[in-house]
Amino acid sequence: MRDRVYIVAYDITDAKRLRKVLRVMKGCGEHVQFSVFRCILTEQAKEELVSSLDRIIDHKTDQVLFVDLGPADGRASSCISSLGAPYDPEERKALIL
């Protein structure tokens, strides 16, 4: 299965949970705005992210939105536009350890 690009946006009502969500999200994608990330994820990585966030948030007051933009090698790489400061997505690079 190909990687897919998601916009993940969240509204967390408690500062402690917000910090935890931010910590999880920083490991999963590009921080594009205050509570918005652009993530390139496999199906398994998305399920793991959902599971991690599910354990953190308060399901009565918090909200996390996942917007599927499609395959990473398709239209999803160019479907975000901006007004004002330009949006310049991070280039994916191989990391050799």
Written description of the protein model:
- The chain has 97 residues and is α+β, with helices and mostly antiparallel strands.
- It has one domain: Alpha-Beta Plaits.
- Helices cover 27% and strands 28% of the residues.
- The chain has 2 helices and 4 strands; from the N terminus they run βαββαβ.
- It has helices at residues 15-26, 43-56; strands at 4-11, 30-33, 36-41, 63-71.
- Strands 2-3-1-4 form a 4-stranded antiparallel beta sheet, with helices on one face.
- A hairpin with a 2-residue loop joins β2 and β3.
- α1 (15-26) runs antiparallel to α2.
- The mean pLDDT is 86.
Short description:
The chain is α+β, with helices and mostly antiparallel strands and 97 residues long. The chain has one domain (4-73): Alpha-Beta Plaits. The chain is built from 2 helices and 4 strands.
How many β strands by DSSP?
4
Task: Give the mean pLDDT.
Answer: 86
Overall number of structural domains: 1
How is the largest sheet built, in terms of strand order?
Answer: 2-3-1-4
Most strands sheet: 4 strands, antiparallel
**Which range best describes the helical content: under 10%, 10-25%, 25-40%, 40-55%, 55-70% or over 70%?**
25-40%
**Shape verdict:** globular
Low-pLDDT sequence parts = none
Distance between the termini: 25 Å
List the helices and strands and how they pair.
Layout: E1 4-11, H1 15-26, E2 30-33, E3 36-41, H2 43-56, E4 63-71
Antiparallel strand pairs: 1-3, 1-4, 2-3
Helix pairs in contact: 1-2
Q: Which labels suit this protein?
A:
single chain; alpha+beta; Alpha-Beta Plaits; 2 helices; 27% helix
